[in-house]
Structures are given as C-alpha cells and as structure tokens.
Amino acid sequence: MRPPIAMAVTMALEESTSDSKLHKDSVNKKELRPSSAVSYSKSDYGLETTTSVDQLKQYKSWVSNERWNELKKLADAAMKERRVFMIKGGGFPAVRKALLDRGWIEKYESHKVRHPPVNVDPKKASDKELTKVERMILYKFMEHHSVDFLWTTKRDKYDWLLSNKEVIISRFCRSIFTTKEGLTTSLTQMHWYTEPGIALTNFPRCYNIHNSENLEEFIDDFRITACISLVKWFCKTFQTNNVEKQVMDHGKVPLTAIEFAINRINEHVTFYSHRDIDDFEDQSQHIWEHEWDQFLTHHYLLVHEKAKFLPDGAVNIRQLEKKAGKALAAVTKFWPQIDIDGVLNIWIVKPGNKCRGKGIQLMNNIKDIVGLINIPAQKNRYVVQKYIETPLVIYNTKFDIRQWFLITNCQPLTIWIYKDSYLRFSSQIFSLSNYHESVHLTNNAVQTKYKNNGDRDKALPDENMWDCHTFKAYLRQIGKYELWDTKIYPGIKQSLIGAMLACQESMDKRQSSFELYGADFMLTDDFTPWLIEINSSPDLAPTTSVTARLCPQCLEDVIKVVLDRRHNVDADTGTFELAYRQTIPKAPAYLGLSLCINGKRLHKKIKERKHEHRSATTLAPRTHSGDVTDESHQPVPLEYNGPIITDFLTWLNPYDSFPTNKDGILLGPKESLTDSRKTRKKSRI
C-alpha cells in the first residue's frame, strides 16, 4: 500500500549515501559546467543513453495511474505557481522541510537522477525505493523548467548568469568582506560611515602586508605600539613595585630605552596634533633602522624575559616616571585602541584566503612577520591584525561569540540580526605566554582536535559552547546582567551595520538574492564587543547540543524572512530582528533645461564724424559686406528660454558673435573685436 504524500515528502528529506558519493565524484571530475537554475536537454556527462520519454515509460511501471496523475498535477501546479526549488550540494534538511511545508516542490540536480532499479519487482519495492522513483518522476516532469528558489553553498557564476532576475538565490555573486583581506581593505574607510547610536564598528587595526604601502604602515604601527607598551609597562611596574628593584648591576637594558620610547610618543602626539606645521625646520630626530632594532630588542627583554635595568646615575627614575605618565596621558587621545594593546605587542597573522583557523599564528617579532612575505614561491597573502591582549575570560578561559545576520538587499541595504547567538570556548586555560592555537583560537574546527584541559573550571561546558541565554545567566551571577541589553548586543548590531555600510560599494546589487553570514566577536574586559571577521557559509551542522537546537531554527527563520515576508509584510520573522533598513533619498529633478538669462543686449551708439555735414535727413545705417545684415535694431525678446550652454559659450568666445561667410571667414572689421570685448566687459559689469 502506497504511503500518503506527506509521508513520502518526509522520507524525501533523507539523502542517500550513493547520491552523496556520486556528487563528490562529479565535483572532482569537473568535466562540464555544473547544472544551475536552468535545465539542459543533454546530461552533464554527455548524451543520455535514453530519451526522457523512454525514461518516463520506465518510471510509469512503478506507480499506479492515479499516483502518476497526482504527481503530474503536483509538478504542473508548482511550475505554474512558481514554487520549484533546488538545493545544490545536498544537506540542509531544515531548509528542505521548510519549503516542502509551504507547498514547494524540489527539483533535484541532474547528477542525482537514477534509472529505476533493474532487479527489483515494483510490487515488492520498499517505501524508500518508491519514494526515490517518485522523486525522479517529478524531476522528469520539471526537467526543462528553471527553478524559482536556489539554495547553494558555492559562488558558482553560472547560477547568476543562467538564471533570470526573479530567481531567488541564497548567495550574492560577490561578498568581498567575507575574506580577511577584503574585510581589512573595506574597513579602512569605516570612519566615514560612523553614526553614533546606529553604526559604530570596533575592529582591531589590520594590515594587508603583501601591499608595500600597508607593510610600511604596519612597521610604523608595530614600532609605536612597542613604545606605548613599554611606557605602560614602566608606569604599571612603578605603581605596583619598587622600580629601584628593577635596577641591578647584572641588568641588560639601559634606562635610556624608556627615554627613547617617551621621545617617540611625544613626536607622534606632536604630529597628530598638528603642532609641527608652524615649525620651519623639522625638529624631530631621525631614527636609524639599527636604533629601532635595538629598542625592539630592549622591549622584548624587559616585557617578555623580565630583564633588569642597568644602573645609570645620570637618570632620575622618579622624573622619568612622571615624564612617562605625562606622555601616556597625551597619546591616549590619538591612540583609540590603547586599551586592547596590553604591553606584550602581540599580533595575529592570518592567511587572507583560508578559513576554519588554518595557518593562523601569534607573533611578537617584526622580523618573523615580515619574513612571511619574503618566502620564495609564497602563495598565501597574509593579513596582520593586532591581537586583543585584554579579552574578557570566563573562568580563566577565552571565548568568542558567533553572531548570525542576514542581508536581504544591498541597495537599499537591509540587515536582519538573529537575536540568539552562541559562545565558543577554548579547551585550554588562557595565557599570553603560550601562543598555541588551542589557547587562542576558539573555532570549533580547531578545538575539536584537542582534549579539554583537566584544570579548567568544572562550570565550563564539555562541548565548549554556551548559548546566549546561558551567558546572560552568567552575567546575572557576576552582577552584570544588564550589560547584554545595554552594551553587548547593541554594540554587536552597531558594529555589523557600520561594517556593512563601509562594504556596501563592493556588494552585489542583485535584488532577488540574500545571504546568511556568521560574524565573530570578542569582548574586552570592559564588555565592549570587537568585530574579528565575517564568514560566508557559516557552519550550520549540529555538532553540539547547542548548534543542534539553534541551527535548524535559524534556517527555518531565514525562510520566514525571505519568503513569508515577501508576500506578507506582517508575517512572523522568528528570532530575526530588522536591525537596519537604509533610506535612500530621491534625487531632485534635473532643472538644466529651464535655466535662462534675463536681460537686454547692450549696443554701442554710432558717433558722428566732425568733418561730415549734418543733415536733417536720416541716413540708412551702413551695412556690412556680404549677405549678412546688422540685426541690432531687431526686437529683442524679454525672456530667453533656450539652452543656457549656447549663450555661455558665445560669451566666452567673442569671435562667435561676428558674421562669417560660408567658408567660416570673419566678415566684420578688425576694430570691431576690440569694441566687442569692451561691450562684453560692460555687460559683465
């Protein structure tokens, strides 16, 4: 007995192992261009051995006539109502279920088409086999119909080239900001899009060091950061300990290293406060490369290896501490990220085109960082980002926040933010002296390679994940519950809005596209969220109990926003919140054709010559030689409504106002040019 349609649809949600294996083989071969939102009369792997009619005859023997007619009606209704969808690459059962529940029919990819089983009796076939046959029958009915909704995980250019503009696609053709290199480039202009309370992005300074100009900027930043870090360390050490104990006969660093750092900070403040503009001579001291190398070595010895100062009777330590505190207070205004720098000058180096934590390193030596781009045959292009040395830790363990957001339109920009996020913990205890990836990289793909440290607090989850509600409970426990609604979540929204506004020019303007992104945030010890990176195709697999609950619900809510709200503005959008909708003012009407000049032409009076006899009879005015007559006494209209550009060009060129013959030769007398210029000068007055 045939199961009902609902049961068949439910069983259709399962992807067979053979389908997945065949798909992998087809992707590896890459023989022809992939099937897209349109269909072809030929198979992707050459000519079909049998025609579609012959295949339909083979399928028809597996189902009854009534069932055949039902499937035909389903296919015809889906094509007529534009409810045909395709999921490329398989998976995403939550998306498939959401669409099937809304009456959509799935069109499978061509490489998944099967012939009916040869050695199986249709009467004895299992429900699973019959369901597969029905899937193939529906595919044959809709074989030459383009899909109306395409869910894909890859940026296949054929999806956009071959599909019409009304096809809804789950990816934008380009999203440059989803690469580390692209996000770094786009956010260099984010200060132009800052709007208090709406768009304000906190992003640790980052450089594309493959570019020579950015490399020079990074080197300057690294050196000034080292100066500020050393002065901060010196002031902190002076407040907590007796500085005289840091001066010993077997010390390795002279006290002049602190003076060097203070002088460089003061020069930086002078430059950015523009106090050097009035100086006729450059009073800043030129620093040679070997001097910087020596200072960076002193910084490393003091901060990382706990070295001591050499005694110097010519230096007053108390006065030096006052100068250091004063320089540190002055540079704070011109160094907005001073709170995340710490004192160790640690930078995180990332390959610009990799994901899931691959190839990421922590470094504190500028020669090692620069050496990465000087490796022969180096294919990777690295970005260098300042490491946040003052992160908020929970039970002495580092974490970050994965925040989903959805863009449904790029022009005007429309951003939806998912209100449920989750935290990802490190498996090891946090330490700034251990640069191993298991300590600092909280990506799930990285942490699954390591076992949890046995010394971690037992309150931390074994799966290394919390949802935002558990985090709120922790904030309540430490007396900071209100910070989620007043600082953390609003800060995340403002950072995403500011980042997307800065990246808008490089976005795809296709109207029927949307995409779900995953942004990673870190919190500093003052609970300020900092954007780290943005990922396309975020991991939505149910790898833990947290993601098993959140991911399917998020995908269901995506369909609510993209489809349900398209037909009903008041439709439920689930946990998605409309965070930003750009308002584009209408351009004013072009008024160029209505411009005119009001006034009368000035004419020079003809002077009578003294030797001529005055006559009572009025003489006719002298005419110019040729066919052109003087039109000075012709009536002049009160208002001229013609194109202003013609009169303006005539005013600019005095030669255009004189008559010419058919060969373009000037017909007026030579002295008329001077008179004309004088007349136009009076006209301008």
Keyword list:
685 residues, ATP-binding, ligase, globular, alpha+beta, 7-stranded antiparallel beta sheet, TTLL_monoglycylase
The secondary-structure class comes to alpha+beta
Mean of all residue-level pLDDT scores: 79
**Global shape:** globular
Compute the number of strand runs: 15
Tell me the strand percentage band. Answer: 5-15%
Radius of gyration: 38 Å
What does the largest sheet look like? 7 strands, antiparallel
Uncertain residue segments: 1-49, 614-629, 669-674, 676-685
- Total helices: the number is 21
Q: Kindly report how far apart the N and C termini lie.
A: 101 Å
Helicity level, as a percent range?
25-40%
Protein name: Tubulin glycylase 3A
Subcellular location: Cytoplasm
Keywords: ATP-binding, Cytoplasm, Ligase, Nucleotide-binding
Region (Disordered): 16-35, 608-635, 663-685
Description of the structure:
This protein has 685 residues and is an alpha+beta fold. The chain contains 21 helices and 15 strands. It has helices at 5-11, 17-29, 52-60, 65-80, 93-101, 127-141, 157-162, 180-186, 212-240, 256-272, 289-303, 317-331, 338-341, 366-372, 437-440, 444-447, 468-477, 483-503, 545-567, 644-652, 671-684, and strands spanning 84-87, 105-106, 149-151, 168-169, 206-208, 347-351, 361-363, 382-386, 399-410, 413-418, 422-425, 465-467, 515-523, 529-536, 576-581. Strands 9, 10, 11, 12, 13, 14 and 15 form a seven-stranded antiparallel beta sheet that branches. A four-stranded parallel beta sheet has the order 2-1-3-4, sandwiched between helices. Strand 9 and strand 10 (413-418) form a beta hairpin. The radius of gyration is 38 Å and the shape is globular.
